[in-house]
Amino acid sequence: MRALVLAGGSGTRLRPITLAMPKQLIPVGGRPVVFHCLDNIRAAGITEVGIVVGEWEDVIREAVGDGSAFGLRVTYLRQDAPRGLAHAVLIARDFLGDDDFVLYLGDNVLAGGIGELVAEFATVGPDAQLAVGKVSDVSEYGIATLHAERRVTGVQEKPQSSTSDLAVIGVYLFGPRIHEAVRAVDVSARGELEITDAIQWLISTGHDVRGSIYEGYWKDTGNADDLLECNRTLLAPLEPRVDGSVDAASELSGPVLISAGARILGSEIHGPAIVGPGSVVRDSTLGPFTTVGAGCLLEGACLDESIVLDGASVRQVHGVSRLLIGGAYGAPAGSPGAGGLSLVLGDNRVPVAHR
Ligand code: G1P
């Protein structure tokens, strides 16, 4: 069995962050989203992985390399533009051959792994098997209708309403019949070749499509709220460890991970929280569920439930909750800071509140 990981999307819902980096490399729980996918694939016993990339190919190649750090062998497949999930399968035809494969959306986190899904697929042997989970807003997802024995009788992409509340959650298992299906479908109203249409084609032509209700935590991290919520969930079981330095004027409480080379000076950090390698946190208060990446500088910052991306600097910004930040930010001297705000900030942009 092989895996096909999709990391070619442009992440428009996460702008301006995604003007500077691919969404699949935004860290949740202190690790890039797509690394969680690769870990799960390896843990399920799969080692041959194709990663579909777009304009961020170089950056993703640099982060993931040849896959050996994950125990994988990675092949990169270039998609000229985000033309849909079925299009990604189409361009991966040679890589996939006639092997069974798991299609894994590179911005989806399945905290309980995919081992059981893969084992079930191997036992039952359907043409397709979809991991599904309950959602409250069907209009944001592909929605599957399931009947007895978990047979899928229909799938619809982002319907206005549906009798089912089971979303297709970003991990699909396919046998080789899917290649015929992706060739059979037309471009959708949103201009993409939809995997949902290809699956519906399989159903309509009498193939065996199954659904497996995913019992673990799942999140599509395509927007800031979901990313921050996912970060919260993944940080909860954090083990405390101090590899960097913490001065006598600083206080750590709860599970806090201070990485090698990080320096905490005159600051309070309330876990679960992570400070990445080489970062400096001075005269700051970091609240629970905050992660600071590598090489950051925080001075006079008071944040909680936030993700500070690698290399960001945050100065004199107070009382901010739920911040997703890259680049360099500071409140002008004498200003009260960004009290009470929730912000998504990208590289080298000045937040509106500070103009
Ligand atoms: C895609 C799929 C959708 C699926 C969702 C899961 O949507 O088209 O069927 O339910 O991923 O994350 P997108 O995130 O591209 O809008």
Structural summary, described in words:
The protein is α/β, with parallel strands linked by helices and 355 residues long. The protein folds into 2 domains: 2-234, Alpha-Beta Complex (Spore Coat Polysaccharide Biosynthesis Protein SpsA, Chain A), CATH 3.90.550.10; 238-354, UDP N-Acetylglucosamine Acyltransferase, domain 1 (3 Solenoid), CATH 2.160.10. The chain has 8 helices and 31 strands. Strands 1, 4, 5, 6, 8, 9, 10, 11 and 12 form a 9-stranded mixed sheet that branches. Strand 2 and strand 3 (31-32) form a beta hairpin. Helix 3 crosses helix 6 and helix 6 (178-184) packs across helix 7 (195-204). It is elongated and about 70 Å long. The model is unreliable at 332-342 and 347-355 (pLDDT under 50). The structure holds 1-O-phosphono-alpha-D-glucopyranose. The site of 1-O-phosphono-alpha-D-glucopyranose (G1P) has 13 residues, from strand 11.
Bound molecules: 1-O-phosphono-alpha-D-glucopyranose
* Architecture (CATH level 2) name of the largest domain: Alpha-Beta Complex
Question: How is the main sheet built?
Answer: 9 strands, mixed
Count of alpha and pi helical runs:
8
Distance between the termini: 53 Å
For the record, the count of structural domains works out to 2
Fill in the keyword field for this structure.
single chain; 355 residues; alpha/beta; Spore Coat Polysaccharide Biosynthesis Protein SpsA, Chain A; UDP N-Acetylglucosamine Acyltransferase, domain 1; 2 domains; nine-stranded mixed β-sheet; seven-stranded parallel β-sheet; 8 helices; 31 strands; elongated; disordered C terminus; binds 1-O-phosphono-alpha-D-glucopyranose
